[in-house]
Amino acid sequence: MHMVVGVVRVDLRFHEVHSLKDKRSRIARLLNRLRSHLPISVAEVGWQNLHQRCLIGVSVCCGTESQARSMFARMEEEIMASGLAEVVDLDFEYLHYGEEIR
What we know:
By secondary structure, the chain is α+β, with helices and mostly antiparallel strands. The chain has one domain (2-98): TT1725-like (Alpha-Beta Plaits), CATH 3.30.70. The chain contains two helices and four strands, in the order E-H-E-E-H-E. The chain has helices spanning 20-37, 65-82; strands spanning 2-13, 41-46, 53-62, 86-98. Strands 2-3-1-4 form a four-stranded antiparallel beta sheet, covered by helices on one side. A hairpin with a 6-residue loop joins strand 2 and strand 3 (53-62).
């Protein structure tokens, strides 16, 4: 059996955010949207005290790396479609476990 765990750090920018309360509200809406539309784990992991920036961590467990890449592409599309934030940067890592089934 083979398993791939994909992990991505997503650097986000929020426009027209003037308070941490407003930022927290947008982050909560975005994370809830991602969780409800995709089978991923997601959490805010950095820059909690900056008004217009946020770092989220996302993970997914799949059978192949291409499935994980596809899931992350869908995640990025979902973020852009939400209109809540701009994706500034993505940093991917893939961990491979086990052997391929032949």
